[in-house]
Specification:
The protein is of the alpha/beta class. 42% of the residues lie in helices and 14% in strands. Helix 5 links the parallel strand 4 and strand 5. Helix 6 packs parallel to helix 8. The relative contact order is 0.14. The structure holds zinc ion. Zinc ion binds next to loops.
Length: 280
């Protein structure tokens, strides 16, 4: 079975229609909708119908959506900020359900650049509490709409909680598997200097999604490169995913092109790799 998917984040500067065209042309059967910039605010009514027609016309399945990130997170450090963002996330759960996407990616905690007092020593504790409060609100909504929220490991060099699979696993274990899972971002693992196989094993049976891309080193922005263009060992990665009996989508979130390479060419390069890697 071809369980691959490609993120529209690979076509950030293009329209959603152009992104879908290129993803279809590259041969991917499914897509992750990067809601920013491609579907923000979520489509409703006419726009929603038009969008589902666009997917059908290209024979593409919206496998997942990536909720807005940036300011939109579970672990906001002020209550006013947190309430605003859970409402936004609620609207995207409904959007995921509207387009029959089973999964929605969420960034559990904010990038320090968005935090008013980023070095406040109380932040880790404030964030831990905020994440739980936000999940307590969102999990019943996700259940109502039949959507699973997957929390992503993040590449921030700070003392904030919930940046790795290891930490996130202890969190999601407290909630039902159908509403809360994990998504492994392979490049973020590299930026953090963590071990990919260990991270996959920590996620274990709660791993429900992937953001596959390569990473050159552990500086910000070293990631989102095409497969095998960085330091990750893709064979060990696949072996570990098979060991935990991973059955979710293989979603490529490749964004950074080589010199003189178009975004469409990167998608084709990635598709060629995926077919060989996954023996499709
Ligand atoms: Zn990602």
């Amino acid at each position: 079975m071809d369980n691959t998917s490609y993120s529209t984040a690979g076509f950030r500067k293009q329209t959603l229609q152009e992104a879908l065209d290129s993803i279809q042309k590259a041969g991917f059967p499914a897509v992750e909708i990067g809601c920013v910039p491609h579907a923000n605010p979520p489509f409703k009514n006419e726009a929603l119908n038009k969008f589902t027609n666009e997917l059908d016309r290209r024979n593409l399945k919206a496998r997942s959506i990536h909720a807005p990130s940036g300011l939109t997170t579970l672990g906001a450090t002020t209550e006013e900020w947190r309430i605003r963002e859970v409402k936004i996330l609620e609207s995207f759960i409904i959007f995921a359900s509207d387009i029959n996407a089973s999964d929605m990616v969420i960034h559990p905690i904010p990038n320090p650049i968005f935090v008013p007092e980023p070095d406040n020593p109380a932040n880790p504790e404030i964030m831990e509490k905020a994440v739980v409060q936000s999940l307590d609100y969102l999990v019943p909504i996700a259940e109502k709409y039949g959507v699973r929220m997957n929390l992503e490991n993040l590449p921030y060099h700070c003392d904030y909680p919930y940046r790795s699979m290891k930490e996130l696993r202890t969190l999601v274990d407290q909630y039902p598997a159908n509403q809360l899972g994990l998504i492994l971002d392979t490049g973020h693992v590299g930026v953090m200097g963590n071990e990919i196989v260990e991270e996959i094993k920590s996620a274990g049976d709660r791993l429900k999604g992937t953001h596959l891309h390569d990473v050159k080193g552990n500086k910000d922005g070293d990631d989102h490169k095409g497969p095998k263009r960085g330091i990750l060992n893709w064979d060990n990665m696949l072996k570990a995913l098979k060991e935990i009996q991973y059955s979710g989508p293989y979603t490529f979130e490749t964004i950074v092109t080589k010199e003189n390479e178009s975004e469409e060419e990167l998608a084709i390069f990635t598709r060629t790799f995926a077919k060989k890697w996954l023996s499709i």
